Amino acid sequence: MGAASISEYVALLSESQQRYILAFLEFMNTEYPQLTNKISFSMPMWLLGKQMKDGYVAISAAKNHFSIHFSDEKFVERLAEKLPACKKGKRCINVKYGDETSFSAVKESIRDFLNSYHAERSSDL
Question: Which of 21, 23, 35, 122 matches a 20 to 30 Å C-alpha distance to 45?
Fold first, then answer.
């Protein structure tokens, strides 16, 4: 069974995992306070709308890396091309613990993702 809250999720992690997850949580909550965050699919997630189908960004911890998840697979593919040190998963980019350069690049890409999401939503209207 997964964590019921973000604080429970973080408490279940190792010290190394906590460092990166907490850094990303702080980044997202500081830079994008307008986004709704919650635990979904056993990981911290920020919804871009009211539901997952409206778009999301999420983070999860694994043994040797952490993953930043995006609702747009094409965006992940473009991001993976820019980050050869990272592996791509299904709708996520995997960053090894200690790879500060890739971690910074992924955080910087969040703004691009949100801008492309909003542009796409505007064109749907």
Answer: 122
Distance (Å, rounded) from C-alpha 64 to C-alpha 124?
Answer: 39
80 vs 58: CA distance, rounded Å: 16
Tokens of 43: 């990981």
- What is this structure's pTM? 0.89
Instruction: Give residue-wise pLDDT tens across range 49-72.
Output: 888 888 999 999 999 999 999 999
**Burial bucket for residue 50 (CB in 10 Å: 0-12, 13-18, 19+):** exposed
Distance CA 65, CA 19 (A): 12
